[in-house]
Amino acid sequence: MNPIRKFTLRQVISILLKRQFIVGVYVLMAVIAALKQYLHHSFNNYLIFKYVYWHASSMQNLYADYTEYLDSNHYGPLFAILIAPFAILPDSIGTILWNIFNVIILLWGIYSLPISIHKRSVIAWICAHETLTALFSFQFNIALTGTIILSCSSMIKKKEVQSAFFIAFGTLIKLYGIVGLAFFFFTKNKMKLIVAGLAALLLLFALPMLISSPTFIINSYQDWYHSLVHKNATNASLRSFQDISLMGMFRRISGNVNIPNSPFLIGGVLLFALPYLRIKQYKHLAFKLMLLASTLLFTVIFSSGSESPTYIIAFAGVAIWFVVQPNPKSSLTVSLFIFAFILTSLSPTDIFPKAVKEFIRLYSLKALPCIIIWLTIIYQMMKEDFESYLIADK
Q: Helices H, strands E: what count in the chain?
C-alpha cells in the first residue's frame, strides 16, 4: 500500500473516532430524522409525549385515549416534567430538540464508560443505525439506554448517589430503568446507594405534583399500573408490531398466542442471575461490562412490549459485548456480530425486500441474534477468567 495513502487512511479513521465528530453525526441524525417526520406530519409519538405535560398540568387522565393523537401514553407521571421544556415550544422546534436531547443522553452514557476512548467511539458507531431507527419514532428509548449505562458506569466509579438517581429516574419514567439495580453488588457502599435511591424515588415521585396536585399524581401512578397491565395483555397479538422478544418468537412461530410469559421470564432470570455466583470476578472491569451488556439485552428480549425502535437498548448491549471481547477478530465473535447487525439492525430497512421484512417481523426474528448473543454472554461470564481481559480505562 502506498505510504501516503496509508497515512491518509489512518487520519480518516482518527477523525471518525473523535468524540466531537461522533457527537456532530448524532446531532445531525437527530435533526434530519425530526425534520423528515415533522414535514411529513408523521410525529404521533411526539404528540403523545407532548400531551403528557399538558394533560398533567390540566389534571386530565394521562392514560386515556385522546383525539389529539393515536394510541395512548404508557410513561410514568414523571415524564410530564421531562417533556415540559419541549412541549411548550412549537412542534417544529420541539421535535428537533427532543431528538437532540435523546442522543446527547445516549452519548453521555456511552462516553461515561471507563474504557478507552477508541472503544467508546466504536460502541457509538455500532449503535448509530439503531439510534437512527429510534429517532424516526422520537423514542425515549434512546435516552433510556444512556440512563441505564450511566447507572452502571456511575456504580463502577463509586458514584453511588449519581447511580441511584439514574435508576430512580429511569424507573419512574419507564419501568425498564429498574434494571439498573443489576449493578447493586458492584458497590461496597450499599447502604449509601439504598438511602440515595429512596431519597431520589421520593423526590422524583413528588416532582410532577409541582404542575398538578398530589392527589392527581398519586392516582396517576395507579392509572399507569393499570395501563401497563392492559398493554402487556394486548402485546401478544400475532400481527402486532410489538412482542419482538423471545416469547414473541415462540408465540408467532407456533401460532399460539396463549403461550405465557412466565416460564420464559423465570428461566431468563435464573440464567441472568447465574454469573452473580462468581463473586471473585466482581473486581474485574470486563466482568462488570459483560453484565451491563447482558442487562441491556435481557431488558429487551424478555419484554413483550419490545418493538423495533426498542432495540437501541439491546444493540447497545451487543456493542459493549463486542468491544469487551479479548479477541474481537475471532470467527465466532465476528460471525455473531455480523449476524446481529444484518438481521437485528438492518432488517427494517429497504435493503431487505418487503416480503422478507414482513416475514422477519411476523416471526419476531429481529430478536434472534440478540438472544444468541445474550446466551453467549451468560456462557462466557460463567466460564472465563476476566483477569485475562485487558481493557484500557483511559
A: 17, 0
pLDDT of residue 394: 44
Handedness of CA 246, 251, 257, 263 (dihedral sign): negative
Q: Which three cell numbers stand for residue 141?
A: 428509548
Q: Are 347 and 357 in contact (CB under 8 A)?
A: yes
Of 187, 349, 375, which Cα lies nearest the Cα of 283?
187
CA dist 264 and 249 (Å) reads: 11
Nearest CA among 312, 322, 242, 326 for reference residue 284 = 326
Distance, CA of 242 to CA of 244 (rounded, Å): 5
Taking the C-alpha atoms of residue 380 and residue 331, their distance in angstroms, rounded to an integer, is: 16
Cell numbers placing 126: 455500532
**Rg (Cα) of the chain, in Å, rounded?**
21
Angle at 311 between CA 307 and CA 315, to 5 degrees: 165
Among candidate residues 159, 168, 204, 209, the one with its CA nearest the CA of residue 186: 159
CA separation for the pair 70, 379 (Å, rounded) = 43
Instruction: Report pLDDT for 92.
Output: 96
CA–CA separation, 67 vs 52, rounded Å?
A: 14
Nearest of 56, 86, 62 to residue 74 by alpha carbon? 62
Residue pLDDT, tens place only, 287-343 = 999 999 999 999 999 998 899 999 999 999 999 999 999 887 789 999 999 999 999
pLDDT at 69: 80
How far apart are the C-alpha atoms of 309 and 311, rounded to whole Å? 5
Q: What is the DSSP string of 249-286?
A: HHHHHHT-TT--SHHHHHHHHHHHHGGGG-GGGTT-HH
Backbone angle region of 159, left / alpha / beta, with phi > 0 → left and psi within -120 to 50 → alpha: beta
- The predicted model scores a pTM of 0.93
Give the position of cell 424507573.
Answer: 171
